[in-house]
Amino acid sequence: MITLLIVLALLSVGATLAGVVPATVADVAEAAAWLTFAVLCLRVARREGLACAAVSVWRGLAVAGFFFTTSSLLRLGTDGEKAPPVAAAIAATAVTTVGIAVAGWVMIRYPLEVRGPPRVRMRLDLATVMAAFVLLAWYQCLPGGDPPGNPAQLVANVLACGLALLAVFGAIKLLLGGAAPFTLAAGVILGAGVLIGSWSLFNMLTVEPGEEPLIEAGQIACAFLLSIAARMQYLKMHHDPTGVTRRAAPTYSRLPYLAVIGTQALLVTELAVEGLTLRGWGVVVGTVVVSMLVMLRQNLAFLDNAALLKRLKTSMRDLRRHEERFRSLVQHASDLTLLVGADGTVRFASPALWELLGVDPQAAAGRPIGEVLRPEDVPAAQRLLEEVIASPGADVRRPLRVHHADGSSRWLEAMATNRLDDPSVGGVIINVRDVTEARVLEEQLRHQATHDPLTGLPNRVLLNEQALRLRQEPRQPGRHEAVLMLDLDDFKEVNDVLGHQAGDRLLTVVADRLRESVRPTDVVARLGGDEFVVLLTGTTRDGAVATARRILAALRRPVLIDGHEVDAGASVGVAIGPGEEFDALMRAADEAMYQAKRDPTGDRVRVVDRTAQGGTFPAARAPA
């Protein structure tokens, strides 16, 4: 449809300028174009999704289009004999006046999106530009320098200029206000149509003989351009249903300065050509008004700049104060702060880097983190970086074990925060705290809670933890665990004869020989007194019995305590079965150990084998 409108516009304007069609046909073409404009505006106003404020504008433009259509039809009547030409011309002019007033009013009423001080500045700019256009209208109304002799012509000129100023006011307001009730493409074509229509309106009543086709062609072009703009608005709303154009209101505008230049040029021209006529005095007054408005606007700009500079100085002072405070905190903080880029490059390191790792923080800046840390510490740091980079905005807390430049190890608690999306940071912030003392103390407390203080062997707590892990591990076919319960023979006599210190030394020797007799993967624990437990993982019946025999052989070697030779004999109960039945194995091994103590043959090893008995635990003498 846009293509059709363009073709019709070119044909109508061309035919009118060439004079190949009578004025009646031109009026019909103009009336059809205005009617098309009105209908298209109604379609835009009824389009779903159009902003409420824009609906009022397009409805008003539709009403104005119907008035313009009526005006064209009334001018069509001036060629007939039924209506007096003067009356028809007056009626057409009146209807056109109402149409322009409606269009200008809906533009003026369109709400601005500028608030506060910028609204005052925008109004001053608008007043300056409109003062320049008023001056231009004054110049246009007095073409000879003085009022025309025909009062009707003066009234017509004033009316035409006033209506044109109304349309110009609405357009300038939308231009400076940062919001318009139409899309950009439609707005450009609307502006072109308004300019051509204003030109034809200015010259309609002062037209010279032979210029009527030019004025008529301008009116037709205006009608078709506005129709094309309405159609384009409708089509563009497929992509933007709101149908409006929003942009940030400009912080300054060149239009007031252009107005000053224009009025000054007009003043010089008027004084040089006509002198101080009535029109010349009006140009002088208008130039002064425009200059004063610009000076007032400039003064507001100076005040705004002064306030801005004051706020800027205050902000800079506060910024320096905060920076000094931050530097003071960072310089004396015991915690380390690192800023690392996405590529792993250290961008900032606080002075605590020297205390924690023995690395100069200034030398660390700009280097990959792999070059700052010791080689053995790099993988853990890289895993931390990869994890936090993969989680934008998240915090990742991890313990790290690193090494100081002097070779000592440190435990650190690192919390990494992903701030790569923050333009003011653009990296990963890592806050590091030295927790070596706390970690060492924790390990000491943990060792004290899980180990026997005399022998250093695991106690019942650690043994139960190991048993829990065995229960949680998936069961493997053919895999068995064995529990060996040991009790020293005649240990009470050692305490009674040689004293408790000798008994403690004997227990220490027994613990060492037990550790030597088992594999590194096995667990040797002291339950209390002279009772010991050995947990053999992944073994067989023969392997468990062989270990028990090896332990007894090691314990039979004499022990020299305070010049006394002591025999550390023992009785061993062995229970073998699945690891998830650890408690039952412990009870069976304990029972087997007491059977071994009472064995009259002197065999100190008894075995309970669950793997061969389908759920029962018969005691059996271990093969020699």
Find the count of extended strands (DSSP E, 2+ residues).
Answer: 15
- Distance between the amino and carboxyl termini: 110 Å
- Mean pLDDT, to the nearest integer, reads 79
Instruction: Indicate the structural class.
Output: alpha+beta
Strand content: 5-15%
Number of domains: 4
Low-confidence stretches: 79-84, 614-619
Shape: elongated
Rg from Cα = 51 Å
Adjacency order of strands in the biggest sheet: 9-10-8-13-14-15
Q: What level of helicity do the residues show?
A: 55-70%
So how many helices? 20
Q: What profile does the largest beta sheet have?
A: 6 strands, mixed
What does this entry look like structurally?
Pfam families: GGDEF (PF00990), PAS_4 (PF08448). This is Diguanylate cyclase. Keywords: Membrane, Transmembrane, Transmembrane helix. Residues 322-392 form the PAS domain. Residues 396-447 form the PAC domain. The protein has 624 residues and is an alpha+beta fold. It folds into four domains: 2-113 and 178-252; 120-142 and 254-332; 333-441, 2-Layer Sandwich (Beta-Lactamase); 451-621, Alpha-Beta Plaits (2-Layer Sandwich), CATH 3.30.70. 60% of the residues lie in helices and 13% in strands. It has helices at 2-18, 23-45, 52-76, 85-109, 117-141, 151-177, 184-204, 212-236, 255-273, 278-332, 352-357, 361-364, 369-372, 378-389, 436-450, 460-472, 491-498, 500-517, 541-555, 582-597; strands at residues 179-180, 245-246, 336-340, 346-349, 395-403, 409-419, 427-434, 481-488, 523-528, 531-536, 559-561, 564-566, 570-577, 605-609, 619-621. A six-stranded mixed sheet has the order 9-10-8-13-14-15, with helices on both faces. A five-stranded antiparallel sheet has the order 4-3-7-6-5, with helices on both faces. The chain has a two-stranded antiparallel ribbon with strand order 1-2. β11 and β12 form a beta hairpin. α7 runs antiparallel to α8 (212-236). The longest helix has 55 residues, at 278-332. The chain is elongated and about 150 Å long. It starts with a helix and ends with a strand. Residues 79-84 and 614-619 have low confidence and may be disordered.
